[in-house]
């Protein structure tokens, strides 16, 4: 629990409803969506304005109290789980859409704004914000920015980092900084905006963001290609890109995932297929239909057993909704669902999926794989039970080998979920010792007292896996 002088000062800043340290609240904010990580914080604060965030950090800096920021808590790398004695800062009351600027094609938002609600408001204005994490119904824009979230449209449109033009943020000592703005060009010093995006709440607390918008595509349509082997699906992905077609969405599901998703969503996915590609294109209707016709030809030429093009946009929306439901569908099967995000060059997708299947058999664990085939971002998902310590050890060893395999194939340990606590022991595998040391120096420059999200990003490096074939 916090000392009484700290409690009084926080309540003076926030009012009685803005600071809570009762048992129920502390338990409620002791975990996020990551299985098996839980620690009760010393207290929870709910700021409603930047000045409150600044004043809170001044108090925490004076008393050396660590702070973990969070939005909806949908994080999957234990990036928003507090440590013992830490304060959780919940940003969901700072949830306003401050402005949609149609002249500059920007929006200014507070971090607690729900991602799906923001999409809907922007599209009502005839504009479009492409980043679309699968958790968008739940997650917040501040969380998307802090973790550098991706989504299904990453192949064509890029990820969150490509749409953040400027930030307002509070430093650990309470100072407020502004970076960037409604500008396409700005090279005045280091790019602090890009540095803060994806920093996982370890450098500063984001309190406002200026986001880039684009014109809303007038038409969207989807299709599904069904395969009897993984390599046919992987070859199709490469051939589509080689034909200079960049789909809005290019998603992959393996057989185990197809069966579970179909049982859950009932959209007519073929349960006997080894793999499917769910593909969506947007733009002018004539061009969309032309692209999908050519993609259909490519998929058949690469061995697709069946290609189904939606007749109407509504049919395509059902297909993509089914893909977005993959995690929810899989989570019904076992008490614990662990979803990872190993990423490889798209030419290595089939190799990576086959490696995941081999590793799952080696450790006798159940792993289903789906993901963003167009950008090589795969989601191997283990179905397990956190109460079974021996099985959880096998799952951990399996994922260690999956991370090592992804790096061996030219990939990375995380494509969009972030590092947090879960990936911290593996960061040096990807970044190297010199890279991690440089990151630690950056952390020291921003946060010399180590107050923001301690225990995330950096940890003792796990011994590398020796993969024998």
What's the story with the biggest beta sheet?
A: 7 strands, antiparallel
Structural class of the secondary structure composition? Answer: alpha+beta
Cα-atom radius of gyration: 22 Å
Mean pLDDT: 93
Task: Describe what you observe in this structure.
With 469 residues, the chain is α+β, with helices and mostly antiparallel strands. The strands form 4 sheets. Strands 15-12-14-13-17-18-16 form a 7-stranded antiparallel β-sheet, with helices on both faces. Strands 5-6-10-8-9 form a 5-stranded antiparallel β-sheet. It is globular and about 70 Å long. It has helices spanning 4-14, 23-28, 50-63, 115-124, 141-147, 154-157, 192-196, 230-242, 255-265, 285-301, 313-324, 326-330, 349-363, 389-408, 427-446, and strands spanning 19-20, 43-45, 67-70, 87-90, 97-101, 106-109, 127-128, 164-170, 176-180, 205-212, 214-215, 219-227, 249-254, 275-283, 306-309, 336-339, 366-372, 377-384. It starts with a helix and ends in a 23-residue tail after the last helix. Helix content is 36%, strand content 20%. The protein contains 15 helices and 18 strands.
Short description:
The chain is of the alpha+beta class and 469 residues long.
Provide key terms for this protein.
469 residues; alpha+beta; Uridine Diphospho-n-acetylenolpyruvylglucosamine Reductase, domain 2; Uridine Diphospho-n-acetylenolpyruvylglucosamine Reductase, domain 3; Alpha-Beta Plaits; seven-stranded antiparallel β-sheet; 15 helices; 20% strand; globular
